[in-house]
Amino acid sequence: MGRPTQWLSLLLLVLLPGPLPVAGMEDAAFPHLGESSQPPPRACPPRCSCPRVDTVDCDGLDLRVFPDNITRAAQHLSLQSVYLHNNQLSNAGLPPDAFRGSEAVATLSLSNNRLSYLPPSLPPSLERLHLQNNLISKVPRGALSRQTQLRELYLQHNQLTDSGLDATTFSKLHSLEYLDLSHNQLTTVPAGLPRTLAILHLGRNRIRQVEAARLHGAPGLRYLLLQHNQLGSSGLPAGALRPLRGLHTLHLYGNGLDRVPLALPRRLRALVLPHNHVATLGARDLAATPGLMELNLAYNRLTSARVHHRAFRRSRALRSLDLAGNQLTRLPMGLPTGLHTLRLQRNQLRTLEPEPLTGLDQLQELSLAHNRLRVGDIGPGTWHELQALQVRHRLVSHTIPRAPPSPCLHCHIPNILVSWS
C-alpha cells in the first residue's frame, strides 16, 4: 500500500461521523486473542497477553502503575507493539525508565488513560504513538526530540493549550506524516511543523487566526482540517494558506466565515465550507483554484441574487457542487459542464428551467428534495440533455397530493430515473 493511500485511509477515520474508534482498534494490525496457536512466552507480564512474539497487550486492565516487567519482557520478545490503552495510568505510574530495553517498539498505545503530560523517554524507534483521550495539557520540551521515525501522532481529545506547545515540539519529527490535535484548546496553529507532514487535524479547537508564518515549515501538507473553530470573518486572511502549495483538501466546516477565503493554494482540489455564513459568491471568488473538483457550500446563506453568473467560469474541473440548505430560488447560471453531482435540496427553488442545465451531459446526480417545486414548475425540455441523470428524492412538496407524474415527463428520455416517492 503506497503512502497516498495510507493518508486517505487515515483521513476517512477522521472525517467519518460516529463514535471514537473502538478500544483496541487504533492500529490496523491490532492483535486479537486466539490469533496465535502458540502459548504465550513466559516473559509476558502477568494479566497481559502476548498473542505474538513481538506484541504485549495490556488493554483494559485498569492498571494504575506501568507493568515493570515489560522492560524485562522486551529483552526476550523483541517487542514491536505495546498496547496499554483503556487503563488508569497517570504520569506518576510511568517510571522514567519505563521503556528501557524497548528499542524496537514501533507502535505504542497509551490512549484512554490519565496522563497529564507527554511521558519522557519514549522509545526512539516509534512509528505510531497513540495518546488520545488523556488529560495532556503540555508536551515538555524535548519529549519528542528523539522520535525521528515517528509517522503518526494522535493527541486528540486532550487539554492542550498554546502554552503547552512550543516551536520545537514537533520540529525534530522528520518522518511525521499524520498529526491529530483535534478536540483540544488551541487558539493558533502550532509552530515548528515538520516538512514531511501530510495531514494536520485541528478540528474542534478555539483557533481564531491562521498565520502564514506557522505554515511555511509544512509545504507538503495535503489535508488541512480546521472544522469547528472560531475563524470568523477575519481569521483566515487572503494568502494565509499560500505556503501550502500542494494542499489537496481544506475543511472549514462551522467557522462563521462570511465569504469564500481568497487566494487559496492553486492546486486545491476540495474546499469544504458547510455551515458557515457565506452569503455571496462573486465572479472571482473561485478564480485562484481552477483545479477544484469538489466544492461544498451547503447550509450557508446564499441567495440567487448574490451568486454571480460567472462564479463558476474558471471551475472547469469541478465534479461535485453542494449548495444544499441555502436560500436559492432558481438554479445558478454558468454551471461547469463537467459536473457529476449537484445537490440543491432544502433551498427555496420554485422553478426548473432548461437553460441552467444546458450542457450538463455528465451530470449523474441532481438532488432537489425539500424545495417548493410543483410538477407544473418544471419547464419543457429541462431533462432533455441530462442523459446520465438520476434525480434523487422527492420533487413535489408535502402539500401536493402524491399523484404519479404525467407520462410525457418520461417521453424520449432514456436512462433517466425520476423518483417521486
Automatic annotation (TrEMBL):
Cellular component terms (Gene Ontology) = extracellular space
Q: Which residues form the signal peptide?
A: 1-24
Q: Which UniProt keywords apply?
A: Leucine-rich repeat, Repeat, Signal
**Name of the protein described by the UniProt record:** Podocan like 1
- Tell me the organism: Colobus angolensis palliatus
